[in-house]
Write a structure and sequence with these properties.
two-stranded antiparallel sheet, disordered N terminus, five-stranded mixed beta sheet, 12% strand, Heat Shock Protein 90, 2 domains, elongated, alpha+beta
Length: 374
């Protein structure tokens, strides 16, 4: 038979996830029937038609019982990790109980053997089966996502010219930087401390402060998610976003965190890449303020000099070793910032680390102001 006959069928399976799911469902569950027959039925000499019917029937029941798991996992797929894990555990336990009850009931109905006293071992076997089903489902899901991303990159590379490809690569790097930066911002430590601070305010009936902190957190999250890192915003918008983040941190640190802004009006209208200052400020708080019992001050200063704008993030912490003053030797937040700046300005920028005269760290960002107006 010609290969051209198979190609439409194989392409339909490859592109239709519903077809893939049901094909794997049927093959997997009735493959389990074969394994059960070879490993249990033959071993215990249960090869009569009644036992064979039950083996096939329990696989058919498994197809139906496991079907809702797909919708359950899809519903929680984009949710936070704790909800996803909870849905997986609940789904496994629930389906295992249902399948075990149905298996034992149909076993008694088909063979006439009463095995309810062996409910525990039957349930344990069911749990193992659904754990394997869940693991295989997530493996296939992540594999499909990987394949889709790979296919998208191939189509992009073949359909665009060199300039479009450069922009697409810049967007991909910027989006990756945003995701890493959001992870850097919203890591479990940050969320844990923020939620603990809100909880503490609620417990002491400081509802107004708790409400203010929640509002600041929501504003900062909205700004982070709504602003595409490929585009630019005014320095004033970027400073407002940094203030929202610092208000959250100031609720945590209280009087230990002092702030100072010196951004002239002439600088506020200059365009800068969105979400470019937050990792610099977070780095200052993490290494300059948090380790000190007395806290410290974070300053943001902007100046213009010729065709360039200089933005400095200064902290009063311990500073940095001279051998570590290179961007390549610091954390991922500054590295991502440096890479994003390179995509915007090629080599016409500077990101420099210097110790201040009093021992703190000054991160200087130099970018061309005349290139920032689109």
């Amino acid at each position: 038979m010609s290969n051209s006959i198979y190609h439409p069928f194989l392409n339909a399976i490859y592109r239709n996830t519903n077809v893939q799911f049901w094909l794997l469902q049927i093959v997997g569950w009735f493959g389990l029937s074969l394994i059960s027959f070879l490993s249990i039925s033959l071993w215990y000499d249960q090869n009569s038609t009644d036992y064979i019917y039950h083996t096939l029937f329990q696989s058919a029941l498994g197809v139906l019982v496991s079907w809702p798991l797909r919708s359950l996992f899809q519903f929680f797929w984009n949710d936070i990790l704790i909800f996803r894990i909870s849905s997986v555990i609940a789904g496994i336990i629930g389906c295992s109980l249902i399948w075990t009850i149905l298996r034992i009931s149909t076993f008694f109905w088909i063979t006439g053997n009463y095995v309810w006293h062996e409910f525990g071992p039957w349930l344990f076997g069911s749990i193992l089966v659904f754990v394997c089903w869940t693991a295989f489902y997530h493996f296939v899901k992540y594999y499909q996502l990987l394949q889709n991303q790979h296919q998208t990159l191939l189509e992009l590379a073949s359909d665009t010219q060199q300039e479009q490809l450069k922009r697409s690569q810049a967007e991909a790097i910027a989006h990756e930087a945003q995701l890493k930066m959001l992870q850097y911002q919203l890591n479990p430590h940050f969320l844990f401390n923020t939620l603990n601070a809100i909880s503490a305010l609620v417990k002491v009936k400081e509802s107004s402060k708790a409400h203010e902190m929640i509002v600041q957190l929501s504003k900062f999250l909205r700004y982070s998610l709504d602003n595409d890192p490929v585009h630019k915003v005014s320095l004033r918008q970027e400073i407002d976003a940094v203030k929202q983040y610092l208000n959250i941190e100031r609720t945590r640190f209280g009087k230990r965190l002092k702030l100072h802004f010196d951004v002239p009006l002439i600088c506020e209208s200059i365009d800068v890449p969105s979400l470019i200052l937050q990792p610099l400020v977070e780095n200052a708080i993490k290494y300059g303020i948090a380790p000190s019992e007395s806290g410290g001050k974070v300053s943001i200063v902007a100046t213009t000099e010729g065709p360039y704008v200089f933005i400095k993030v200064i902290d009063t912490g311990p500073g940095i070793d001279t051998v570590q003053s290179s961007i390549k030797s610091v954390g991922i937040g500054l590295k991502n910032t440096d890479e994003r700046l390179r995509q915007f300005y090629n080599d016409d920028y500077e990101l420099r680390l210097d110790n201040t005269s009093v021992g703190g760290l000054c991160v200087t960002l130099k970018i061309p102001s005349d290139h920032l107006n689109d």
